[in-house]
Amino acid sequence: MQVAGQHYQTIWLKPGENRIVQIIDQRFLPFRFTVEDLRTLADCVCAIKDMHVRGAPLIGACAAYGMYLAACEAKEHGPSAGWLAAAAADLKAARPTAVNLAWAVDRQLEKAGAGESLHAQIELLRAGAESIRELELENSRKIGEHGYPIIEELATRKRGQPVNILTHCNAGWLACIDYGTATAPIYYAFDRGIRLHVWVDETRPRNQGSRLTAWELGEHGISHTIIADNTGGHLMQRGLVDVVIVGSDRTTCAGDVANKIGTYLKALAAKDNKVPFYAALPSSTIDWDLRSGGDIEIEERGAEEVKYVEGWSGDERKTVLVAPENSPAMNYAFDVTPARLVSGLITERGICEASEQGIIRLFPERVRA
Ligand code: MRU
Description:
- The chain has 369 residues and is of the alpha/beta class.
- It has two domains: 2-136, Four Helix Bundle (Hemerythrin (Met), subunit A); 146-366, Rossmann fold, CATH 3.40.50.10470.
- It is built from eleven helices and 18 strands.
- The chain has helices at 41-49, 56-77, 83-94, 99-113, 118-157, 184-191, 208-219, 232-237, 263-272, 304-307, 356-362; strands spanning 2-3, 6-7, 11-13, 21-24, 35-38, 163-167, 196-201, 224-227, 243-246, 250-252, 257-260, 277-280, 286-287, 308-313, 316-321, 334-337, 344-347, 350-352.
- The strands form five sheets. Strands 8-7-6-9-12-17-18 form a seven-stranded mixed sheet, sandwiched between helices.
- A hairpin with a 7-residue loop joins strand 3 and strand 4 (21-24).
């Protein structure tokens, strides 16, 4: 995507120095655009845990590069048995809900297993990380193509009036490699001249909506309005939302969708108001071993994210207390929307019903014997 006229993706190997992984440090957006160098496994674990990078596909890709850097370090410090297994465990523990992370790490472990020397493993892991990056890039591009008819049909029905789309959190290009998941059909439609407007949920406590999604859409010239998280239901009652599109951190093989906390409430409001509710996700987000959303591990983050709000004043990052200092606070990062509230899943292979049969129709190779 374009940032101030220059094309960026979210993660890449530094040109000419392929032992350095570069990312956009999202903690400083939208106030400052900063590229960070990751040189070690520990840098990658920290970037994922402290959310320099975030969003399911991107943390998967970052973990894949983390495995590559771990192998490079093993070379420098002398190989030790179990080094890569320990690196895999560290990366997987960094954030527990998005299954893309474990998926990418396991894929890398399998790749490394084919290397007969550490040197061979390093090369395999570098190629493995690059291929995950390419795969997720292509997945997002296809999600855009497949999701486009939903918006196109609404535009036809509205006879050229702007299509109003509500989204939650940031399932944009910043959460992926490029294009996004929920935003991919939006960019695709906008680039084809469809008039649209996006309601951007602020997404407390970390404000991924107001800070990241709003910034992304603005950079692309897309009309949008930031709303407080509790506003969506009211807008739906007034007929001001034509469709809800969100991303996902983990979708069970029966179609339950874990996504940023508050997504479930949007799905309930959408159902009550007969507004279609779609989740857009690559197949790397599907947990093929889990049927029930109730079994998804939900990350709990620090209470300080709820009690303090971070912003910029002049040139300085500031954190201010917005609650009684001694009140306890709780911070579940995700919730689960049951499949029955989901109108469809937009994947790289097309749109399917949020059900085991629907998913298997698109991914028949996953049928269990
Ligand atoms: O806590 P975050 O910012 O990593 O949560 C991200 C989300 O919930 C996104 O909606 C999800 O990862 C989909 S990303 C395309």
